[in-house]
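Note to self: keep these together.
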Amino acid sequence: MAAVGRFLKTAVQRDAIVPLLGIVGVVSLAWLWLLMGAGMESTIFDMTRMSGMDGWMMQPAQWGVGYALVMFAMWWVMMIAMMLPSAAPVLLLFAKINRKDKATAAPLIPTGLFAMGYLVTWGGFSAMAVALQWQLERSRLLSPMLETTNLWLGAGILLAAGLWQLTPMKAACLDHCRTPLGFLTGNWRAGYLGAFRMGLEHGGWCLGCC
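Structure:
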């Protein structure tokens, strides 16, 4: 409760209001788009009634540039909706530090670049997810509904995810994400490019946590 109280106290301060509103706005738009179908009504949800069978069956996905872009948008917006809130503490702290830095003429710009770098990292993950999805669907190991069609593949993914939790790398990623102040003091880079690179790096540690 004490940690929550300190977070709320920081949030109501002037140097946190704009970044906090920005985070809430972006996350709200991302969830709204996902709840509206993520633009997939005319692609992945093209269903047809199969003769002689009860229920709806999915047609095989027709991969092309347009379909791949829709899948990438779905993955990336989903990552933004789920992961940007977890970056709120480090973003608010970063904004506060830049606000107090008299050498920073526009303190909100570095914060925006930090957030952009963070989201670019998840964009890279989304691109890899789309490429893997395409290959698995081509091999008929994944359905258009993103369900594994092979028992051993599903078991292997679950086992790999479980083993990752026990690795030293996972512990290192958690240490970086759980201590925003430690991350900022140990990885600080000056300038706009530095802010963007810090966002990329923090996104990488958060990716490792997940």
